[in-house]
């Protein structure tokens, strides 16, 4: 990028972009290029890779992925056209059957002169034919607009959901095992937000677990620090084990003598200005 004197890496680092788009994702088991365009990249490097993998030495044995891909597309188009023709024929049969019940009254006899407003064909039959043709054309357009690489996208979606469900299950198992690790009167720490401390202040507020609540297949805790019982509740992911580094004054406190306090107030009292509750000099 320095040589090209530019800050647009997507334009000046084309090999990097190509590598990102053609690298198989461990989640979708497909490349971004395949998900986007429904086919493998058509480049010289991909052709050379096929030649190297198959050990081809003769020019007549060169693979033709583009030709085979075009054949697959033509076959899929033939299948779609066949389905469309069947549905169009069915609509035409329904239209003809409906027209038999909507026939107009007999036309004028020879003794009666035709008025200028009379029509050679029934208007309702003409309207029905036009409607049937419009519906068949709209259906054909909707079928042809379906992407031909829907199978690749479906495979990528299935692989993505499979990976996501696997990770969610592993995370749930981890939280379930972690919930058995904490009990009442155990010492834990809660992270203090950067807005309530400076870089030299403590990053964790030491607390004791005063209540363990199971709710909706999850566990939450009521905590107490040396300044009071926190009104906030905390989940498993918000507490850190401090059993091996619990403060002695915290172990000696009597929870029944403490009053309720918000988490922000407790953090301000715990950092440098514990007397005034201020964090600035």
Description:
α5 runs antiparallel to α6. The chain has a domain of 89 residues: SH3 type barrels. It contains 9 helices and 6 strands. A hairpin with a 2-residue loop joins β3 and β4. Strands 5-1-2-3-4-6 form a 6-stranded mixed beta sheet. With 281 residues, it is α+β, with helices and mostly antiparallel strands. GO terms for molecular function: nucleic acid binding.
Please provide a brief summary of the model.
This protein is an alpha+beta fold and 281 residues long.
Key attributes of the depicted protein:
281 residues; alpha+beta; SH3 type barrels; 6-stranded mixed sheet; 9 helices; 6 strands; elongated; RNaseH_sf; nucleic acid binding
Number of strands: 6
Mean pLDDT: 71
Bin the strand percentage.
5-15%
Structural class: alpha+beta
- Fraction in helix: 40-55%
Cα gyration radius (Å): 37 Å
Q: Strand order, main sheet: write it out.
A: 5-1-2-3-4-6
- Main sheet specs: 6 strands, mixed
Give the overall shape, derived from the CA principal axes: elongated
CATH topology of the domain at 182-270: SH3 type barrels
Low-pLDDT regions = 76-80, 107-122
Distance between the termini: 45 Å
Tell me the number of helical segments per DSSP (H or I, 4 or more residues long).
9
CATH class of the domain at 182-270: Mainly Beta
CATH architecture assignment name of the domain at 182-270: Roll
Order of helices and strands: HHHHHHHEEEEEHEH
GO molecular function: nucleic acid binding
Biased composition (Polar residues): 108-118
Region (Disordered): 98-120
InterPro entries: RNaseH_sf
């Amino acid at each position: 990028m320095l040589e090209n004197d530019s800050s647009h890496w997507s334009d000046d680092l084309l090999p990097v972009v190509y590598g990102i788009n053609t690298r198989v994702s461990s989640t979708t088991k497909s490349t971004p290029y395949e998900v986007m365009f429904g086919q493998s990249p058509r480049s010289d490097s991909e052709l050379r890779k096929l030649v190297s993998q198959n050990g081809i030495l003769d020019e007549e044995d060169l693979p033709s992925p583009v030709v085979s891909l075009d054949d697959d597309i033509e076959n899929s188009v033939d299948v779609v056209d066949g389905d469309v023709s069947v549905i169009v024929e069915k609509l035409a049969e329904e239209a003809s059957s409906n027209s038999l019940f909507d026939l107009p009254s007999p036309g004028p006899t020879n003794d009666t002169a035709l008025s200028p407003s009379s029509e050679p064909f029934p208007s309702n039959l003409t309207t029905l034919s036009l409607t049937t043709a419009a519906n068949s054309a709209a259906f054909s357009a909707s079928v042809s607009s379906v992407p031909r690489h829907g199978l690749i996208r479906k495979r990528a979606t299935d692989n993505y959901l499979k990976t996501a469900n696997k990770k969610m299950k592993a995370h749930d198992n981890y939280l379930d095992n972690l919930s058995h690790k904490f009990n009442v009167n155990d010492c834990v720490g809660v992270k203090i937000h950067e807005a309530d401390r400076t870089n030299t202040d403590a990053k964790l507020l030491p607390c004791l677990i005063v209540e363990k609540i199971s709710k909706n297949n999850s566990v939450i805790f009521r905590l107490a620090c040396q300044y009071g019982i926190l009104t906030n509740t905390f989940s498993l992911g918000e507490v850190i084990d401090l059993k091996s580094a619990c403060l002695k004054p915290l172990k000696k406190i009597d929870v029944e003598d403490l009053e309720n306090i918000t988490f922000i107030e407790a953090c301000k009292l715990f950092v440098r200005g514990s007397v005034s509750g201020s964090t600035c000099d």
